Amino acid sequence: MNRFLQSLPMIAGLALASTAEANNFYKCSTDGCSWGGWNLTVSSYAKTKYPIVLSHGMGGFSQIGPLDYWYGIPADLATSGANVYVTQVASFTDSVTRGEQLLQQVKQIQAITGAPKVNLVAHSQGTLDSRYVAAVAPSRIASVTGVGGPNTGSPVADVIEGVTSTIGPVGTDVVASIINGFFSFVGALSGKAYDQDALAGLRQLSASQMAAFNAAYPAGLPASGTPCGQGAATVNGIRYYSWGGTGVTTNILDISDAALGLTRLAFNGQPNDGLVGQCSSHLGTVIRDNYNMNHLDEVNQVIGVVALNEASPVSLFRAHVNRLKNAGL
Q1: Of the residues 124, 143, 206, 256, which is catalytic?
Q2: Alpha carbon distance 56, 29 (integer Å)
Q3: Quick check: helix, strand or coil at residue 161?
Q4: Domain of 101, in residue numbers
Q5: Count of structural domains, the chain
């Protein structure tokens, strides 16, 4: 019965998806979480001291109608007692720019809730954005959790950078303009029309750019020379956690698996989730780094089609927020 009640927001969302109400039937943002004014919280399992703030990755967004980057995750956390906020930054640009955008939303969330701190839970490049926020505004952050975070970059970015050199500056600019235009449209649809910079986003994940970023914002990273180790659990009063996957083709029904099967080739046989290496995901306390999940599975995409022989991504987020609760965060 408890699990049935927890599924109600998602069931209702599917029912309303074709109506104008779909965009608001269950909305977690800087305006808070709601579902028709009803409080469907069924437990306090995920009721943390500080709000949970979700930070998306490269190419991400918050919500477009019923299409949710964090598929089913905010609804599940809220029904389990969490105060959840979904942020949105530029889909493509560097993490200092995205980090500043995230910081402004953290300040908004604090103003709305009166909370002195928030728990940042991030996916992919959102991990870098969150690390930046924790570095420049540590008094506002209780914890940073990275899920599939490219903390040492991604060889996929270096491969693509090589391709841009081959097609030349004109071809690169054309491709970048198409990407920027499309994601400006996506951002507008989901509520925040940020400027996009596909090339800056790509360079952010290159080996050279990440070396510079990590030198400036090292908190939570494994010690130099031990990339597959764990980082400090607490830095400057902020707890750091991470987890990631090493699955790629995890479900034959998932339309994204084929593309990730190609990008995995950039890793030369090293374990990865299709876009981020196993060791690159390490930050602070490593909960686990080899879930049978690819990079999109980690946020329950595409639309919940993930590996059948692995824990549900939704349940991993719920368990982790309970971990934050038990840590007094």
Answers
A1: 124
A2: 12
A3: helix
A4: 2-17+25-326
A5: 1
Whole-number pLDDT of residue 299: 96
Q: Which residues have C-beta within 8 Å of that of residue 265, sequence separation ≥ 6?
A: none
Please indicate whether residue 295 is annotated as part of the active site.
yes
Q: Residues of the chain whose pLDDT is less than 50?
A: 1-27, 29-32, 170, 174, 176, 180, 182-185
Q: Which of 257, 273, 289, 297 is catalytic?
A: 273
User: For position 198, what pLDDT does the model report?
Assistant: 79
Q: Is 268 exposed, middle or buried (0-12, 13-18, 19+ CB in 10 A)?
A: exposed
- Asked if 90 and 83 count as a contact pair (C-beta separation under 8 A), the reply is no
Nearest Cα neighbor of 315 from 298, 290, 294 is 298
Whether 281 sits among the annotated catalytic residues: the reply is no
The residue among 239, 230, 221 whose CA lies nearest residue 328 is 239
Task: Quote the pLDDT of residue 5.
Answer: 37
The model carries a pTM of: 0.85
Q: What residue type is assigned to position 212 of the chain?
A: A
Q: Are 194 and 90 in contact (CB under 8 A)?
A: yes
CATH number at residue 175: 3.40.50.1820
How many alpha carbons fall within 13 Å on the CB side of residue 181?
6
Annotated active-site residue in 56, 123, 282, 295: 295
